[in-house]
């Protein structure tokens, strides 16, 4: 048997780590952490977990210190655009958590009427490459000032006129006399892998992991929906069900006119979906969460 293991990098602690641990848990994977807490081992699959600062993850993966990693798209794209790796890692898939926005923020007293207002101004950011790319796309010539942290204080200290920073609630901006004026980049957690070809053993572990991740992501929004309906309404209901494959239609004991319809809906099922189903003749509608799914 091969002793090949897949090396996965995730953030040690911070805004990505809860989501990363939760995703692995939903995949049925438990991590036993070593004493130094920099390494963990997945018990159920041959995967080693490396716990890092998020900013180090793209480089660790690009340089083949790890095979794959979970990182913010903002951090990954910034590294890609800055071109510091000869063979950068590749994005494999979006993971749907740690959503945030890189936003341009200006002093509240500015009456902002478009990117041209920024011409000749200084913009402080921890994301110079993403900011420059956006300015370029907007055909605006500004000076970008790199700051590692506390970007939002730059205008008050007269280091910059505006900032480009990750915004969630806007409270920090507000406290510093700033308001968000434009979205530069929309981000979420992504899975990345290095550009090297994996050995067949490693590829098999990676494929098995991907299959589980895909199953988790698909089941997050999916619902199992059950209802009774007149036989004559089956076609209309089948047509209407959001994101569903062919449903199962079952006999109802002692009632030849009616059937039970069961289906997996790939998209969210809302109250108006149920109301619409009722109008089509459905009754006793039940919507259940799905814990796991594998095609
Ligand atoms: P580290 O110590 O690992 O360097 P950090 O302080 O640089 O951590 P965090 O604040 O934990 O980073 O953010 C990590 C990533 O989480 C960001 O790069 C971004 O992708 C995402 N993120 C940042 N802010 C938010 C937010 N408010 N909501 C959701 N996700 C966010
Ligand atoms: Zn960081």
UniProtKB/TrEMBL annotation:
Enzyme Commission number: 2.4.2.17
SUPFAM superfamilies assigned to the protein according to its UniProt record, in alphabetical order: GlnB-like, Periplasmic binding protein-like II
Keyword Cell division: no
Pathway: Amino-acid biosynthesis; L-histidine biosynthesis; L-histidine from 5-phospho-alpha-D-ribose 1-diphosphate: step 1/9
Domain ATP phosphoribosyltransferase catalytic: 53-214
InterPro entries in the record: ATP-PRT_HisG_long, ATP_PRibTrfase_cat, ATP_PRibTrfase_HisG, HisG_C, N-reg_PII-like_a/b, N-reg_PII/ATP_PRibTrfase_C
UniProt keywords, alphabetically: Amino-acid biosynthesis, ATP-binding, Cytoplasm, Glycosyltransferase, Histidine biosynthesis, Magnesium, Metal-binding, Nucleotide-binding, Transferase
Enzyme type, top EC level: transferase
Molecular-function annotations in GO: ATP phosphoribosyltransferase activity
ATP-binding recorded as keyword: yes
Reactions the enzyme catalyzes: 1-(5-phospho-beta-D-ribosyl)-ATP + diphosphate = 5-phospho-alpha-D-ribose 1-diphosphate + ATP
Residues of the Histidine biosynthesis HisG C-terminal domain: 220-292
Pfam families in the record: HisG, HisG_C
Location relative to the cell: Cytoplasm
Any coiled-coil regions, as ranges: none
Protein's job: Catalyzes the condensation of ATP and 5-phosphoribose 1-diphosphate to form N'-(5'-phosphoribosyl)-ATP (PR-ATP). Has a crucial role in the pathway because the rate of histidine biosynthesis seems to be controlled primarily by regulation of HisG enzymatic activity.
The protein's name: ATP phosphoribosyltransferase
Native species: Hyphococcus lacteus
Gene giving rise to this polypeptide: hisG
